[in-house]
Amino acid sequence: MHSIRKLLSFQGIGALSHLNCTEKKSSLLFVKPTTSYCSPPTQSTIASMQTLSKEILLLEMKKSIPILSNSLHKGESGRIGVIGGSLEYTGAPYFAAISALRVGCDLVHVFCMKEAAPVIKSYSPELIVHPLLDSSNALKAISEWLPRIHALIIGPGLGRDEATFKVLGPIINHAKELKIPLVIDADGLFYINSNHHIIQNCTNVILTPNTIEFTRLYKAIMGITIDPSQPVQPEDVGALAKKLGHVTILQKAEKDIITNGININICEKMGSPRRCGGQGDLMSGMLATFLYWKTHDQYSHEVTLSAAAAAAHLSRMINRKAFEIHGRGTLASDMIPYIPECFRSLFNQE
């Protein structure tokens, strides 16, 4: 077994690829906050949470990526569900779904409102689209599909219709019963503001708020107002994750803060200054696929944090690639073609 000092002397994940990916290496997950690989959280954060290096988290993710084989069956590499898609917002569920496919899952089911379904279907023939979210039997119809879903994204393009929110709670509860890992973003987070008890102590849940969404969550759950014009502090993200019973939070900003209130990682990979819509949706799709792969791997360590770190890192890579070509006019759709290339670069494999 390599010592932690020797392991960290290698440069980058490619140099770590020689390790046996079936071995359990939980002892390698923890590095002292003083190491050069660790991001620099505040002193209070260092005192209360263990910093995990990006190299170790990415290696943990790499170990759980399913090996491509001619013996695989359709669906084995992941069946992802997306709860979202309304008349006004059809792009968000598409971006979440297509990024999940581009990163390597096999099938994506989008559960949307009836009026959104034809539009979402027109974006890609690869998506399985169910116009059920606003149907009279929405809960029953969607619940029948859930046992086939490996990971569920809740929120992209969902909207804030009261009738939809009434269905959302029972869907989340059913997913919990089935132990389906959840990624909650966008209007799914708005629902959590008033219903945070529903994810309390759910350690297979990842919340992905941007700064505004985080300040709303923090106010709703902690009862404290944070200035949204200022950078969110790592200790605040950690405090909220701990309050929720160690739910993992990927707080998206100039530096992405990833923590479950016990361990923390800060993603400082260079992205781009472009802030077009849809980037968070792309991340949520990749994250859901990674989360399933990690959950499905019986030898897996740091399931939610490694999935989140990989999604954050890969999102910044595709953002940067697209920006180098398209500059100020970069769109989320411009980033999609770079997902396979950047995936290969990040993990040194197909």
TrEMBL record:
GO terms for biological process: metabolite repair; nicotinamide nucleotide metabolic process. It catalyses: (6S)-NADHX + ATP = ADP + phosphate + NADH + H(+); (6S)-NADPHX + ATP = ADP + phosphate + NADPH + H(+). GO terms for molecular function: ATP binding; ATP-dependent NAD(P)H-hydrate dehydratase activity. It is an enzyme of class 4 (lyase). (6S)-NADPHX binds at G157, N210, T211, I212, E213, F214, T215, R216, D281. Its EC number is 4.2.1.93. Keywords: ATP-binding, Lyase, NAD, NADP, Nucleotide-binding, Phosphoprotein. The keyword Transferase does not apply. InterPro entries: CARKD, Ribokinase-like. It holds the Pfam family Carb_kinase. Its cofactor is Mg(2+). ATP binds at residues 252-256, 271-280. Belongs to the NnrD/CARKD family. PANTHER family: ATP-DEPENDENT (S)-NAD(P)H-HYDRATE DEHYDRATASE (PTHR12592:SF0), ATP-DEPENDENT (S)-NAD(P)H-HYDRATE DEHYDRATASE FAMILY MEMBER (PTHR12592). HAMAP family: NADHX_dehydratase. NCBIfam families: yjeF_cterm (TIGR00196). Catalyzes the dehydration of the S-form of NAD(P)HX at the expense of ATP, which is converted to ADP. Together with NAD(P)HX epimerase, which catalyzes the epimerization of the S- and R-forms, the enzyme allows the repair of both epimers of NAD(P)HX, a damaged form of NAD(P)H that is a result of enzymatic or heat-dependent hydration. This is ATP-dependent (S)-NAD(P)H-hydrate dehydratase. It comes from Daphnia magna.
